[in-house]
């Protein structure tokens, strides 16, 4: 378990944070994400307004990566490949922002979901975290996560996918608008952390069942 945790921390250190120039180095991942999202469309240069189609807020996607660095992009690429149908369903519903304001910026949601997992599980000390104190409930969630990761190397990738699916499900169920983004993100975080705290799951599938995502 100690080795599993150590290796995962090295992975986070490699992909989180860094300068703007560090993020630029990960343009290959951004290009791959675009190609997975819009297979029939050529990858735009940066800056370019077309990046907003993927749910970036500006014309240069690198500026939206913020503290999560390239990690959120890698996780979105994973979801696009592992859950292609669900990924494209959520993408279609989410962006670009429509006139009815019922949609949300997809890629930025991915960055936020990545943050809420890293911060919620206290997997890495982040300067933007409200507190570095780890309480008992977080320790239980952490323990469950590392148990899953020990047996299933893709556990973090999978939990990211589950969390994004829940975000999309909650958004649609509420008929949310862009103003509800923070509330939906907080509710999503609560749902996932509650399940991780409730029981030491022995497999990702059992966690997925508990989150009612087995049909996705």
Automatic annotation (TrEMBL):
**Domain annotation ELMO: ranges:** 25-196
Q: Which InterPro entries match?
A: ELMO_dom (IPR006816), ELMO_domain-containing (IPR050868)
Report the PROSITE patterns cross-referenced here. ELMO
PANTHER family, per database record: ENGULFMENT AND CELL MOTILITY (PTHR12771)
Could you identify this protein by its name? ELMO domain-containing protein
Species assigned in the record = Guillardia theta (strain CCMP2712)
State the taxonomy lineage. Answer: Eukaryota, Cryptophyceae, Pyrenomonadales, Geminigeraceae, Guillardia
